[in-house]
Structures are given as structure tokens and as C-alpha cells.
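Action item from last meeting closed. Structure (154 res):
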């Protein structure tokens, strides 16, 4: 078997495995132990008042993936965070509970920052500064809306 065919098979298997696990090529549902994970991004604020964590479902990930591009573009432009938002290429999804509401914390970043599926689902990707290519936004499961977009500094 030639190396190109081997590489294509490995890529296809990886994409299939991510989709089967509730992930798409763009979304990574976090599977973490909150007791061992640091949730204080160095260039933007993590939501305050987190009372607990939950695992987003495949349907949540799919709904976020299908609606986030236009929502992020609109909210980021409204907040004046950047002139020309880079649409999310990869997103880590972490279920959090704030004031009794189930929210999904979405950590967005360029695809070249990920690649190890196990590590990407267990450790938040965090870049100090890095500009607007690194951002976060919350999704309300109850309201089916995006809120509180943030991006890194320069």
C-alpha cells in the first residue's frame, strides 16, 4: 500500500471516529475531569459562577456546528472585537452550569492548533494573546442562542 493511500485511510478513520463520538471535524466535545483542569484562559475571562459541569450531547454539538458561523460573525462584529472575524475552524465544547442554566462554553481556535484527538478532548487549548483567531462564546441550551463572545488580545 502506498503512503498516500495509507494517509487517506488514517484521516478517514479519524474523521469517522470523531463523528461517532459526537464530534464533527470542527467540534470536539470535552471529556474532562474539572478537578484537574485549569479553566482560567490567560487572555479572556472564563464564565463566573460555574456550579457544575455536564456532557453536551451529539445533538447539541450538531446544533452548535450548524448555527455558529453566522451567530459568531454577527455577535463579534456587534461587540467590535474584530473587523473581519475568522469563522471557527475547530471548537472545543464544554458543558457548564451557571445560575441553574445549562450552557456550552465554546473555545474556538485555528485548526492547526489541534490534531491529537485524545488530548484535544481532555485539555483546553489556551493561547496567551494570539489575536482574534482565538475566541470563546457561550451557547444557551435552553434558549438556543449564543451569548458573550470574547476574543484574545493582540
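Sequence:
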Amino acid at each position: 500500500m502506498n503512503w498516500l493511500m495509507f494517509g487517506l485511510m488514517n484521516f478517514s478513520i479519524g474523521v469517522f471516529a470523531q463523528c461517532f463520538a459526537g464530534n464533527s471535524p470542527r467540534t470536539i466535545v470535552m471529556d474532562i475531569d474539572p478537578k484537574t483542569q485549569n479553566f482560567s484562559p490567560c487572555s479572556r475571562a472564563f464564565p463566573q459562577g460555574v456550579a457544575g459541569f455536564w456532557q453536551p450531547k451529539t445533538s447539541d454539538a450538531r446544533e452548535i456546528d450548524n448555527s455558529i458561523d453566522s451567530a459568531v460573525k454577527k455577535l463579534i462584529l456587534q461587540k467590535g472585537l474584530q473587523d473581519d472575524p475568522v469563522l471557527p475552524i475547530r471548537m472545543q465544547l464544554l458543558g457548564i452550569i451557571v445560575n441553574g442554566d445549562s450552557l456550552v462554553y465554546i473555545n474556538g481556535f485555528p485548526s492547526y492548533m489541534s490534531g491529537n484527538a485524545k488530548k484535544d478532548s481532555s485539555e483546553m487549548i489556551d493561547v496567551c494573546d494570539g489575536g482574534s483567531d482565538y475566541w470563546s462564546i457561550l451557547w444557551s441550551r435552553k434558549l438556543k442562542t449564543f451569548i458573550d463572545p470574547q476574543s484574545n488580545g493582540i
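Note appended to the action item: The longest strand covers residues 90-98.
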